[in-house]
Amino acid sequence: MKLAATSTLPQNGLRPSGWVVWLLALLAFLALWKLAEPLLPWAFEYPKALKIPAAKWISDFTKWLLNDASFGLFTFAELTRFISAVIDAPYRIVLSLLSTGFMSGRGSAAIQYLPPISWIGVIAIFALLGLYAGGRKLAAIVSACMVFILIFGQWNSALITLSSILVAVPLGVVGGLLLGIAAYRYRWFEHMLRPILDLMQTMPVFAYLVPILIMFGFGPTAAVVATLIYAMPPMTRITVLALKRIPSELRDLGNIVGCTRSQLTWKVLVPSARDSLMVGVNQVIMLSLNMVIIAAMIGAGGLGFDVLAALRRLDFGAGLEAGFAIVALAIALDRLSQAFALRNTETVHHGPWLKRHPYTLSALAIVVFSGLAGLVVPAFQTYPEALQISTGDFWSNVVKWININYFDTLEAIKNALLLNVLIPFKRFLLSLPWIGVVGILVVAGWRLGGIRLAALVGVLATLIAAVGLWEKAMITVYLCGISTVIALLIGVPIGIFAAERKTLWMWVQAIIDTLQTLPSFVYLMPAVMLFRVGDFTAMIAVVAYAIAPAIRYTALGIRNVDPALVEAGRSMGCTPAQLLTRIKLRLAFPEIMLGVNQTVMFAISMLVITALVGTRDLGQEVYIALTKADPGRGLVAGFAVAFIAIIVDRLISAAAQNSREKLGIAGGPT
Amino acid sequence: MNKYGSIGGTLTRFTVMSAVAFSLMTSAVNAQESTDPIKLTLHDWTGQLITTQIMGEVLKKAGYNVEYVQADYLAQFAGLETGDLTVAMEMWETTGRDAMDAATATGKVENVGATGMKAKEEWWYPLYMKEKCPGLPNWEALKDPACAEAFSTAETAPKGRYLGGPVTWGGFDDERAEALELPFEVIHAGTDAALFAELESAYQRQAPIMLWIYAPHWAPAKYEGEWVEFPEYTAECYKDPAWGSNPDMAHDCGKPFGEIWKVAWAGMKDKWPGAYNAVKAFTVNNDEMGAMITAVDLDGKTVEEVTAEWMANNEDRWKSWIGQ
Known about the structure:
Chain A is mainly α. Chain A contains 33 helices and 2 strands. At the A-B interface, helix 7, helix 9, helix 16, helix 17 and helix 21 of A face helix 1, strand 2, helix 3, helix 4 and helix 7 of B.
């Protein structure tokens, strides 16, 4: 990354006439909004006669696809069932190893002929992996996580969840990496891929749940597929970004020494982008664990099911224990994967197999011995229930205590925010004429990115109106908009502050990992008790979830700034504040913008969850469609959500690009 | 140790134990019936876990191969249509009717009759609210502005606040409030967990609340309260505006009592005819179920203990389902 001379004005910046265009557009918009309602009612409410029956088309298409579509030799349904079987095979093996044991036969007639790995064996494997990849400290952290799960009685559920994660994450990482490399190599592919990634990440899972269930069958496999769709896009995005940031000198060097194309990719580019790629792996793990609840709804079982069941009884303690078991699992997996990536792989051992593989050997030995011991003393195989602990009523009592003592204070804060910020903003958005909003978006697209962007946002926004979802879309914009702003206001400063303080960053990272993996259900129900059903509770859930990328990407950007440039600035006599604003923030700008982008995406992906506390937005539309088993209605609402996300994403990216050009920073994400 | 934390574990143990039991048992199953597992769906509320567990254990006693699968209440129909899942034990008339109708219309899913339990759903208030609104449970008391105000919050004042079920449950509460001219604003909770979270919160503070409560459920057992008595539901009331106190609007009456249905994959009849008949014959009633739900959710017993107890006490009944 280079700093170009900042004095030359870029040619495609905002020309003076740009202000005139904006002024005219705003005046026209105001006139339309304030004066035209009696004259042009269709500008405020999309005419029913012109409504596109997209829901019916999609429903009919899905029906055809699933019942009649054929490739000649086999039908579409057979193809998806085949894919399902391919994913199911490794899953069954992992599940047998970890949880059920190997069986012959199925259901209650099954006979177990080999027990699963005992709890001692599993913990030993985790500890040895930690020892191998990162030394004693890592081994201690990882085993502590597993022991936590064990003594809180979450063992069996956790291993069921672990099985599906162990299948989904490698698929997601490899798939995401390959797509990212392809997108980096071929520009046309990147252009094609981007909208698809946006759709994958922003389309609420509930929207495609019904078709997936029909295609892939009911059970863990469908859950893995849904997880992949949701968790893969960040890996791809980060791969592209990381590869683009590699200095061109390195690539040239690779060419000079005569690398083939695949050598250049796998030996030069991917290893040197490793740090950034690991953020991608981290995201895949986090997002996969995030799907645990929804996966449980379609037969994956495990910890997600425990959370759901506990909250239906309002047993917050049990919900929290299962939720923290998910977090513990996430921490263990994440730290292990990070350590493996950073591990120096150069050392080659010599000697006989036994000596070269001390870790594998000791793991095998412990598994076999604890298994054999388990046959004699069952406690070695299954951790005895008598030794499990539970927080019991503690958390329910905490919530009760806050509820009784502070409800009125909380209510006052909530009412103040609701009446002064949330509701006025919502009313304002709902009063706007749709055609005016589309117009403003088109002008913004045109000024920021030219005629193509203008056309794109114009078409997408009009489509939302045309399928009759404008009002719900506006409520969505209102909820996500406010939540994103709050998440950024809190998250970016924390990211900046924590990035360069090592110990603090460790804590912050632990907290945001927790926020991202702790199922929102766990804190949603106490939030309902304290803030009642409604938008405010939904907002809390969205902010809690969307703050993670705001912090993470800001810190990543700051930490990636070339220390030589900071040093140069310091030697030129910059104050710390100047160093921050003139050098670090500017150089970190691409990552921060990616963070903004991801914050919006995360906020939008929480819509489905917020629908569960009674918002009236597109998320709820999707949820209703799920309960009516109406794939068309769900997908149309899902597309509307995705369109909003794409419009926001493109406009932010274009604005970032513009200001980058103005500031003279080259490179970064497009 | 929480009650469901070990469901996975319990099921595994069950599998092992019943495998042994199965091999020792002289099978009562007709030789022509399939030995593939019959998959019963488990949802996330206790009552359903109990009904399913009873059905499953009865089928096991008859020698069938049974597997429990966790599945979402509504998403499960995708699996029932393809035969990936076999039986769902509780489909409530009041909340699952649309999804059930859509599924049975395909011909791949069959309604195998009522469970014998009746779903009761209505506006409900904690008993301490009776002081502020003495006319209750008669619905006409709610028309009194002072009474409505007692149920209000900052956002709805001076109107009362009624917390309805998720919009997906239907229920016509907006229409009911309007038709009966009740000064209440209807707010919809997103899920029933949210509904009971609000009730728990209000009950702890002895704060006003009026909300949708259904039975069989643990809530009416845990919290002292009453259902509002609206004019009794009839089919005409929902269809004919002329019926009832409001001549211009329908829905000027209470909610219907609904059956709780059992549904099954249409192919079950041929694959496991005996099991199909057993599912068809299964019945329990509200009182039994209410007692069992209370035993699990409030007294801390496990689902397995409660079902085993029921099976021991009702041997004649379940034996007749499997023709013994």
